[in-house]
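B., you asked whether I could sanity-check this one before it goes into the benchmark set. Here's the sequence:
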Amino acid sequence: MSSLDPIGNGVTSQLVSMALDGALARHAAIATNIANAGTPEYQPVMARFDELVEQLRGRVEDRSLDASTERVVRTLKDSLESEPLAPDPRASKVELDVQMAYLAKNTLRYQALLTAQGKLTAMRDFVISEGKF
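And here's what the prediction gave me:
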């Protein structure tokens, strides 16, 4: 393992990347719900990402668990890619105002994640250039 692994390929970088994938899945679920709002008996869907990421809560802070956390990240990423949308147990019908609120919230999260990814990339570039601009 090189000294750049924690920055370029570490758990934090993987989690940010996976969170971006999750935000895209969440956007797809919201778009699907909005598109089918008028469909009789349509069951709203939600991205599974939120429930999957609960399994990682607290593990990222404990650096001694990095190897096992990376395995969990891979498992979660595979789960997200294979089955990103599931029926939303909280909703029986699509409420457009609620979906628009979810969309606004998800957009802000996505922007924050992009900022975090940009900062991680800037740190990696700084280390690679040995602190020279």
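One thing to flag: The helical segments are 5-8, 11-35, 49-53, 66-82, 96-128. Otherwise nothing jumped out at me.
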